[in-house]
Specification:
27% of the residues lie in helices and 21% in strands. It has 400 residues and is of the alpha/beta class. The chain is elongated. The longest helix has 25 residues. It starts with a strand and ends with a strand.
Amino acid sequence: MELTLLGTGAPAGLPRLDCPCAACAVSLGVDARAATAVLVDGTLLLDLTPGAAFAAARAGHSLGGVRQVLLSHPHDGPAVEVPAGLPQPGRVPDGRELALLTGHRVRAVAMDAPGTGYAVTGPDGQRMLYLPPGGAPAGLEEGAVPSYDMVLADVVGRPDALAKLRAVGAMGPATDVIAVHLDHDVAPGAELARRLAAVGARAVPDGTTLTVGVYEDVPDVPRRTLVLGGARSGKSVEAERRLEAFPDVLYVATGGSRNGDTEWASRVSTHRERRPGSWRTAETCDLVPLLAEDGPPLLIDCLSLWLTDAMDSVGAWDDTEWGDGGERKLRERVRELTAAVRATRRTLVAVSNEVGSGIVPATASGRRYRDELGRLNAAIAGECEHVLLVVAGQALALRG
């Protein structure tokens, strides 16, 4: 089954007309995207957009053989003119299946937002799922959904759509995930590619023809990632974003509840509201057993607070206790954690503060903490496939 992406952008296209934002300003050339429309084997058109016939011609195809035009979402603005010879566009009721004369079967998939998804099975049995902008599948049950060879979805706007598909086995490691309906939320080019690769997806230019079921270089999701950054740098947002497309994430909060601290409670509440509702939370600094267990992905936020707890437990703030074995005990705790990160089979995203580039602390205990955090970060980074430094909300790849 062959797909030609006549467009890969949001309904308003990219760049948006009259939008002065930085992403639109650099969305030029191969990064410019028309509204998403997909031509399947030259016979089925998913979403009719302005200029579809010209887009097909530029890609070396014609719409002359199209026998069915299906719309996935309500279109704003004036009605799109239907090119001569094309059938009138329509939408299929949720759950209903069409059998085309060409041997394709198309099933309408219910969504949790206005719109319809389409699961297309080719004559040779390849399966493709196309989702509308801003929508994720609704009512999925494990075992009741086939595994798809390719998924076209609004990965940036609705990463949880991938989480839902993964949760019921509709996506596997070899599923080719193509990001469509791309808008100006993320700068195009390297930043977009990095964001998508973190969740096992990729983007392609308008006009690209893809073959469903043929092996592609599907991005490998890194098993271990360390996200570093200063205060309010956006490191926690970056870490959370890397796991939004996965189900049943366990969020490990190492800071505790700090009863009576209203400012800390406000911080915790903000973090919780930002996380998907399907994620679970554990408040603990006992990380080694969690890393040793099998289970869903772990997001540890953060290692700097884990270190504070570890230094408290060995009396690191007292020079006498530090010299009488506290330093040795802390080193052993760090070695245990580092070994657990090395051995873990879980997907892991860990967050830590980067404090060694600022003002030298005025106290001996502050300098001790700074030094130990630097050692801890270096040790954990050595065991991670991906290491990121977040500065002013921008993630810089240090490794991977």
